[in-house]
Design brief:
Length: 217
């Protein structure tokens, strides 16, 4: 049951030395590939990393968080600003049956076409899309018995704390101009004893019925 997976999923930061079958890794990647996005724009790339050298580089990028190098596999989640170009986004729209004049209309409406609002909005909307796919991949992983942790504390275009290591990582992953590494998902089988309890704010502090302050009973 999906709800059970949602309840059971926890961030796992210590893993057994055990390989995840490639078939399962492909399923996890496919879950990201099939995630929804704004007008099906898919402004993203997902890179499966098994290579230890690349894991070590990404670990450095993430302030030496050990689970990045110790995970059995990593999924590097990239926001691809190029996905909003008139060519690339236009192709997606055309595949939906939107003709040239319809596409031109969309390209002139800021609500539909983020590049009209500037580079930081393009980045924000790209990151927004990537996060849905991250959730899909983590839940698919959980269904396969694979644990995970999101790594968002890393050097990238939004934080730019370590430009030299960013450059090395971009080269190792063959990232192009406009492709921004946003998140790494660590994957592996949990060392059960290291899993902590789920902690959340009070339910009624977060979830409301009709208006803020009104409880959902
Ligand atoms: C955007 C984002 C960035 C995160 N970055 C990190 C990170 O860099 N390192 C880490 O160990 N956990 C990271 N986490 C995991 C959170 O700490 C974790 O989801 C939160 O404490 C709730 O715990 P749970 O996932 O076990 O329910 C991140 C989570 C999100 C959503």
């Amino acid at each position: 049951m999906l709800f059970d997976l949602i309840k059971e999923r926890k961030s796992v930061r210590e893993y057994l030395d055990k390989d995840i079958p490639m078939e399962d890794l492909k399923k996890i990647m496919t879950a990201g590939y099939l995630a929804p996005s704004w007008m099906n724009s898919q402004p993203w790339k997902f890179i499966l990393v098994k290579n230890q050298e690349t894991k070590n580089l990404l670990c450095e990028l993430a302030g030496h968080q050990p689970h990045v190098k110790d995970a059995n596999a990593l999924v590097v989640c990239v926001a691809d600003k190029n996905g909003w170009s008139k060519e690339e986004f236009g192709e997606v729209l055309a595949a939906r049956g939107i003709g040239e004049s319809g596409r031109e209309k969309i390209f002139n409406i800021p609500m539909f076409y983020p590049p009209l609002l500037g580079d930081s909005i393009v980045l924000m909307r790209s990151v927004e899309q990537v996060t849905y796919a991250v959730s899909y991949m983590m839940l698919q992983a959980k269904e396969l018995g694979v644990d995970s942790c999101i790594i968002g504390a890393l050097s990238n275009e939004a934080t730019v704390v370590k430009p030299e290591i960013m450059e090395k990582v971009n080269k190792a992953l063959n990232l192009k101009e406009g492709q921004v590494l946003i998140t790494v998902i660590t994957l592996g089988y949990a060392k059960e004893e290291t899993i902590t309890n789920k902690q959340r704010k009070d339910f009624n502090n977060v979830v409301h019925f009709e208006t803020i302050g009104n409880e959902l009973k």
